[in-house]
Design goal:
By secondary structure, the protein is α/β, with parallel strands linked by helices. It is built from 15 helices and 15 strands. The structure holds nicotinamide-adenine-dinucleotide (NAD).
């Protein structure tokens, strides 16, 4: 009997239906990459917390079959490759996966494994929710006003890697073309990078942000850009953003100017606004509560998402995901923290909350809710790992102990509801 259940369960892959809709079985196989450094500690804690949340929310009706995907230093030792072909195939099969941090291999010819994964699965949106957990030490006076989700374009902009060193043949050729054909003169000591921003990629990113805003009943989507200076890249991003809102979500969205003229007429609409990047960095500090979902280009998003995370306690806590039209990989947003590797002292919150984002992605909202409430409760009671205990001057929990505290609060909540 046990055997047949196992067999049946191992067949339960998520499949992709019409219009990229995911068919989610009750016991899906989900891929996980343990990660390097602190990866194994935080990933195993995340798995035990997510398993407990599922058990508590669904009493065995829904569960995850975790499939280990080899990547990083461990894979390199065994196969000579940091990301073997079989791993990519397995991730293709599971559709949804979660990963710990991976060391970026040093040396010529290595791309970051994260970049490789994003490109291979066309994970074009980097999604980073940032909100405050009472009890977490913060550098700002009102961290509780922060509740934003950044949608950062993941595949183009200056991060596309199209650049040449000042003394390369390519840079020389380009400088010559610019001088001869465009009357643009660059000195011989000028390196060149290209900033591609396309309509297709901007539009799909903003579309995803608006769809998220609608699904999660959020208030606004702010297009963050530096279009006052870079008109045909950043400026175009803004224009295309407004365009997709009005053409595809006409009855669900309203532009900020129209909304401000008559707020009462647009109560249920998502307000679409735009801000220049430098102004936005001030606004998130001075008018934090005015911002909700942010859609932005790659470079802006990189800076902005870390700055927002810093306002509410840093990278150890903030979750993240790379999401495409079908595939999605959820991740701890921090690195491998090698000095804490194997010591069971790292903070697993980032990957645990990424696990919760993953549950929401497959529409298992009840388990996600239970999990997030328990994390919130732990922070409110100042049950924390050493990174925060040090600042608060209190006794730290180990990584695995923190996981157990979360689980005991989830169980406590269930008992409370049952009585
Ligand atoms: P890092 O995030 O590993 O460390 C920065 C600081 O934060 C360190 O002091 C570290 O000890 C601390 N820290 C990070 N996460 C923590 C946690 N969960 N709990 C407690 N403390 C934590 O960044 P780094 O030192 O610049 O990078 C180390 C390695 O990680 C590099 O190889 C880098 O390429 C890689 N990296 C990977 C990812 C990823 O896979 N997504 C992201 C960033 C860096």
């Amino acid at each position: 009997m046990e055997k047949s259940i196992t067999k049946e369960r191992t067949m339960a892959y998520i499949s992709i239906g019409e219009n990229n809709r995911l068919n989610i079985p009750d016991n899906p196989n989900i891929g996980y990459i343990e990660g390097d450094g602190i990866g194994p500690d935080i990933t195993s804690t995340m798995i035990s917390v997510v398993n407990a949340a599922l058990e508590i929310a669904y009493s065995g009706k829904r569960s995850i079959i975790w499939e280990k995907v080899a990547a990083g230093e461990d894979a390199f030792e065994k196969t000579g490759k940091h990301l073997p072909q079989e791993s990519l195939e397995l991730l293709q099969k599971t559709v949804i996966a979660i990963k710990g941090p991976l060391t970026t291999p040093i040396g010529q010819g290595f791309r970051s494994l994260n970049v490789t994964l994003r490109q291979h699965f066309d994970l074009y949106a980097n999604v980073r929710p940032v909100k405050y957990f009472p009890g977490v030490p913060s550098p700002v006076t009102h961290p509780e006003k922060m509740n934003m989700v950044v949608f950062r374009e993941n595949t183009e902009d200056l991060y596309a890697g199209i650049e040449w060193k000042y003394n390369s043949e390519e840079a020389k050729k380009l400088r010559t073309i610019l001088t001869k054909e465009f009357n643009v003169n660059l000195t011989e000591d000028t390196g060149i990078g290209i900033k591609p921003i396309s309509k297709f990629r901007s539009t799909r990113l903003v579309r995803k942000a608006i769809e998220y805003a609608i699904k999660n009943k959020r208030r606004s989507v702010t297009l963050v850009h530096k279009g006052n200076i870079m008109k045909y890249t950043e400026g175009a991003f803004k224009e295309w953003g407004y365009e997709v809102a009005s053409e595809e979500f006409e009855d669900k969205t309203v532009r900020e100017d129209a909304y401000l003229e008559s707020p009462g007429s647009y109560q249920d609409r998502i307000v679409i606004k735009d801000r220049i990047t430098d102004n936005m960095f001030q606004q998130v500090l001075t008018r934090t509560e005015d911002y909700d979902i942010i859609a932005t280009t790659n470079l802006n998003g990189d800076y902005l998402s870390d700055a927002l995370a810093a306002q509410v306690g840093g990278l150890g806590i903030a979750p993240g995901a790379n999401i495409g039209d079908t595939y999605a990989i959820f991740e701890a947003v921090h690195g491998t923290a090698p000095k804490y590797a194997g010591m069971d002292i790292a903070n697993p919150t980032s990957i645990i909350l990424s696990g919760s984002m993953m549950l929401r992605q497959i529409n298992w909202f009840e388990a996600a809710q239970i999990l997030e409430e328990a994390v919130t409760q732990c922070y409110a009671e100042q049950k924390v790992t050493q990174d925060l205990a040090r600042i608060l001057n209190i006794k730290p929990l180990k990584c695995s102990e923190f996981g157990k505290e979360i689980i005991s609060r989830m169980r406590g909540r269930k008992d409370q509801l049952a009585n």
